[in-house]
Amino acid sequence: xxxxxxxxxxxxxxxxxxxxxxxxxxxxxxxxxxxxxxxxxxxxxxxxxxxxxxxxxxxxxxxxxxxxxxxxxxxxxxxxxxxxxxxxxxxxxxxxxxxxxxxxxxxxxxxxxxxxxxxxxxxxxxxxxxxxxxxxxxxxxxxxxxxxxxxxxxxxxxxxxxxxxxxxxxxxxxxxxxxxxxxxxxxxxxxxxxxxxxxxxxxxxxxxxxxxxxxxxxxxxxxxxxxxxxxxxxxxxxxxxxxxxxxxxxxxxxxxxxxxxxxxxxxxxxxxxxxxxxxxxxxxxxxxxxxxxxx
Length: 295
Ligand SMILES: [Ca+2]
What we know:
The protein is mostly beta strands.
């Protein structure tokens, strides 16, 4: 009797393992890029959403740089949710969820060893994303103005230039061009938002400043923080020179705004620094500023 029971359970075990092997054949989810759809008040559709977080049937599959092929152990219809991610605050490798855009929530069909693709993941800003500031210089006006303390020899104006972001969005655009003369004894050039902005969340919610930059020298983004006790300048992030290629930044300003008095007002300051001992003209192009947070 004992021997019979043992044989039975061994047989069951091997059956089980066969089943498991059959179940373990993965299907693949192929994702390559996002398409951002915007309303006119949200600015243009340029983005650098370069990675995804994926849930399949509410199970977290992980974070993946695009393009990717994600093995999933499902057959037939499955609920798929995709969250866009960005390199935040100039990080070279650490992706963080970009929470101000929608999560794609869809149902896809999977078959073992077959690939199911979404070639262009449709995404938009959430309806509760407050768009605080948008500037693409296309109307030839600028909401970014030079600081009165700049050297009068230096200059800034809107000019037509070629735009391309990692091989995409290729077009000619109007961008803000700033120049520091080689002979200038001043080593920097300040551009500030014309307006003060207020009403930001102070509970740590992401406050995302997006912008594209191309320049020969270092550029710094800072905040001019106006409180009941006065104004102070807070340097925030430095962007390294990129003379030939546009680079896009997703800067989360919450680290300097969270925990501050809710009544504070802020101006945003882009400062171009001419590198020390460099005798040439410093040139920098700026475009596609967008500042958003979730209400
Ligand atoms: Ca533009």
